[in-house]
Amino acid sequence: MFHLAQGLYNNWTRKEQYSILILGLDNAGKTTFLETCKKEYNMTSKDLNKITPTVGQNVATIPVDNNKRLLKFWDVGGQETLRAMWSEYYSQCHGIIFVVDSCNSLRLDECSETLRSIVMDEDIESVPILMLANKQDKPERMEVQDIKEIFNKIAEHLSARDSRVLPVSALTGEGVKDAIDWMVIRVQRNKKIDLQFIDDTKDDHKMCYIINIIKDSITDRSIS
Ligand SMILES: Nc1nc2c(ncn2[C@@H]2O[C@H](COP(=O)(O)OP(=O)(O)OP(=O)(O)O)[C@@H](O)[C@H]2O)c(=O)[nH]1
Ligand SMILES: [Mg+2]
């Protein structure tokens, strides 16, 4: 009887959990975005001035939608050597946030080629993709429309998949909640998703394994 009651209780209280990958070139603002998300949802977050380049990953689970659902964010380092490992995460993710530095026009080609390689990967078929035109607080930013044009060319490969470009400032928090709201709706709508619930320790083990490989291959930068 106790086990039955406990089973029912667990069933009622478990929450849907979605894994969201945060990708983008190094220095785009991924970790800043994650820390600001934590702050926006009243979680303890790092001092934004103390964020260092990520070697490996940062993980945070944030309750959203009035605490009814969980988004588990995987912020993966964007340095070129680390990008080769991104695809290891694709089969586990329900949504992708691709962060772009709107102030660095010199890296736009690199940025669009990187996004193209993500979009073309069959493991992320049907996964919603949100592109964030970050650093909108800076006067030298590119117009969001220009960034949209680049993304739209790549979006031709997305078929009927949900995709969007939104302006944000990870530093000031402007647009961050709108971005999360968009993603929460999309991951729920996505019929093909395979829902994970709170007990996803197997995935964590897999991710830890991946991260150890990454750490072995990088020695010269500090872990954030
Ligand atoms: N002005 C401004 N600066 C930002 C913003 N977002 C990030 N930055 C700055 O950009 C730099 C890089 O930010 P990170 O969050 O470390 O970038 P990242 O994408 O995680 O970089 P990697 O971990 O190397 O892949 C830091 O100096 C941040 O303070 C923003 O919205 N506005
Ligand atoms: Mg980082």
Task: Walk me through this protein's architecture.
GTP binds at residues 24-31, 78, 134-137. It comes from Naumovozyma dairenensis (strain ATCC 10597 / BCRC 20456 / CBS 421 / NBRC 0211 / NRRL Y-12639). Mg(2+) binds at residues 31, 54. It is a single chain. This protein has 224 residues and is α/β, with parallel strands linked by helices. It has a single domain (16-217), classed as 3-Layer(aba) Sandwich (Rossmann fold), CATH 3.40.50. 38% of the residues lie in helices and 19% in strands. The chain has 8 helices and 6 strands, in the order αβαββααβαβαβαα. The chain has helices spanning 2-13, 30-40, 80-83, 87-90, 108-119, 144-155, 176-189, 201-217, and strands spanning 16-23, 57-64, 69-76, 95-101, 129-134, 163-167. Strands 2-3-1-4-5-6 form a 6-stranded mixed beta sheet, sandwiched between helices. Helix 6 links the parallel strand 5 (129-134) and strand 6 (163-167). Helix 5 (108-119) runs parallel beside helix 6 (144-155). It is globular. Mean pLDDT is 84; it is low at 192-202 and 212-224. Residues 30-31, 53-54, 75, 77, 224 line the site of magnesium ion.
Q: The CATH topology is what?
A: Rossmann fold
Q: Give the C-alpha Rg.
A: 18 Å
CATH architecture name: 3-Layer(aba) Sandwich
Strand order of the largest sheet: 2-3-1-4-5-6
| Highest-level CATH class | Alpha Beta
Molecules bound to protein: guanosine-5'-triphosphate, magnesium ion
The mean pLDDT is 84
Count of discrete structural domains:
1
Low-confidence stretches: 192-202, 212-224
SS class: alpha/beta
Dominant shape: globular
Biggest β-sheet description: 6 strands, mixed
The proportion of residues in beta strands is 15-25%
Distance between the termini: 47 Å
What is the fourth-level CATH superfamily? Answer: P-loop containing nucleotide triphosphate hydrolases
Number of helices: 8
Portion of residues within helices? 25-40%
Compressed to H and E, one letter per element, the order equals HEHEEHHEHEHEHH
How many runs of DSSP E, i.e. beta strands?
6
